[in-house]
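Per your request, structure below.
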């Protein structure tokens, strides 16, 4: 994990979904070319932040091997990624008070850019926006973003009022899209934010993971 003269950044791995298209269970714990999906996400995220927390619901013991804090959605009923963003913000505010930002990533995105935080932070400044969201190949990835912890009260109020769409909420509060190039691999161009939602996508991720180290 990194540290310099900036304020600490907390990495939040969003693993609170139900994985319906994969048939249920924890995608993050499935093996992918010799490592679990979560190991691959963590290996690429951890060097960019000062601490990491996992957002997941249910029995937290299943993540014990990683030695990381696990926080559940603060809103019942599996309301979606926005609840995970709020969980991360609240954890950062209570456990790492100097932290001003959380960097959120999905638990099923094993090919994250190693300069994700740096580019999002620069893009946020360039776009004069409080939030930065990743974009690749013309497609926005709303759950891959840099969020100010100070927005937690507004996010809590929005969730209580029924807000569920990440992109809509981010746009409402000021979000700058930040472009990332595709990754070159022997399998062809790969979206760095590729996420495996179905068994077919999992097979594709398995092929690519053989060429991209955790």
């Amino acid at each position: 994990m990194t540290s310099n003269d900036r304020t600490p950044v907390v990495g939040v791995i969003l693993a609170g979904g139900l994985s319906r298209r994969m048939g249920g269970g924890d995608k993050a714990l499935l093996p992918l070319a010799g490592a679990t999906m979560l190991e691959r996400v963590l290996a690429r995220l951890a060097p960019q932040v000062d601490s990491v927390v996992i957002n997941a619901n249910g029995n937290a013991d299943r993540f014990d091997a990683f030695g990381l804090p696990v926080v559940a959605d603060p809103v019942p009923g599996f309301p979606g990624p926005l609840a995970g963003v709020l969980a991360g913000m609240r954890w950062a505010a209570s456990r790492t008070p100097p932290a001003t930002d959380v960097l959120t990533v999905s638990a099923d995105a094993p090919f994250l850019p190693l300069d994700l935080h740096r580019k999002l932070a620069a893009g946020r400044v360039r776009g004069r926006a409080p939030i930065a969201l990743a974009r690749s190949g013309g497609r926005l990835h709303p759950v891959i973003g840099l969020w100010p912890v100070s927005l937690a009260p507004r996010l809590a109020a929005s969730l209580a009022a029924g807000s569920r769409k990440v992109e809509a909420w981010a746009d409402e509060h000021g979000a700058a899209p930040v472009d990332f190039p595709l990754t070159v691999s022997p399998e062809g161009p790969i979206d760095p934010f590729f996420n495996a939602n179905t068994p077919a996508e999992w097979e594709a991720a398995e092929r690519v993971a053989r060429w991209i180290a955790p």
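The first strand starts at residue 9 and ends at 14.

Regards,
D.
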